[in-house]
Amino acid sequence: MKKTVLLNCLSLTPKKQRILDTFFAEYLRVLNLTLEQLPNANSSTELHRLTYSDIRETSFLPSDIVEEARKDVWAKRKTIKKGFTRCSIRLNRRWFKYFTTHRGTPSFKVTYSPYKRFVIPIRIDGSYNRFKQKLKAGWNIKTISLLNGKIAVSIEKEYPEIPDNKRNIIGVDIGSSNLAAVTVYAPRKARVIKQLYFGRDVANRQRKYEARIAKLRSHADKGSDKAKKYLRKLKHKQVNFVNTRSAQIAREVVTLATEYNASVAVEKLSIRGRKHRMNKKANRKINRIPYARFREFIKSNCLTNEVPFQPVDAYHTSKWCPRCGALNKGHSSNNYVIYKCSRCGMIVNSDRKASLAIAIKSALVRKSFQDFTNPKLFSQLTRAGVAVNQLFRPDDRVLSGAVHYT
Prior knowledge:
There is one protein chain. By secondary structure, the protein is α+β, with helices and mostly antiparallel strands. The chain has 10 helices and 14 strands. Strands 10-9-8-11-12 form a 5-stranded mixed sheet. The protein has a 4-stranded antiparallel sheet with strand order 1-7-6-2. It has a 3-stranded antiparallel sheet with strand order 3-4-5, with helices on one face. Helix 1 crosses helix 3.
């Protein structure tokens, strides 16, 4: 598992500050030189061939850092237009060393050119104390990124695989209106124990932020420096709020799993590629979902608390009827939050139904639930004669076509 910790730097001496400014200026120059050749390259490898030799002859940067600049340019090839004006410098373990001085000051020794180094001292505050606790818990430093007055440290830790021997399952459906619709499901009894909503306030606060940002952007486009200043602050405040609430809700979900002796199942969702098929309002809702961050928060809490975490394929989780097994369009055309089955007439909240489908699919792919010769197992999971194989893709080798109770 990987995490990023943001550390604050102490004030540098004038000499160190000049070295750091020169380092950033040279990295920006390399970025923009690479950007000039971007229209002539059809791939990252071709961009390397067009730029690497010339840059290495004129730059004092090590080869690895030149390569990082090329990767940054290629990653931002669709968004960058006029050139780079600011940047962050990512360094691997070859070009930095973490140590503590004889005075007890934590520091990073950075190699900015072959055989040329300088030291950046770190401020001892809450961020550093959390970072120190992570190192004591067995986390290892992977890379660092130099920012303006801060250092982003990427750390990682290998966790052993947690056996899925819990009695119950928590299915989590991540959405735009409610950040998480949760179903606590008992597979051996085929019974829903509890269903909850988490994070309704996230969407409401997001809408307020977006309305305020739209007004400030209109003033900023007219040249208001004050609007530009407040726009930057508001965007930063919005990101902090979403991250904080996502982490809090993820902790509540995992606490619920611990209370009910349950594993956690979250659907593997890929929604970004479908934006071009939706209108602006739908795209705005999709952009509002902090899916990747929230999923990583849940996974991190699960690993820390030794709760099994299972990503589940999202195939038909919004279309499948848990009463009769029919496949419908999903959300009702009249009301987006309602799911209505055209076969049995069941009407239910679409998010709750999707979280139940995720929990059932997780139960079906458990190793302990793959005994296809046990008829009692099928009746426990499909009491109403539900065609559960419709939850799996036709080419799925796990359970597709094998579990179908009538």
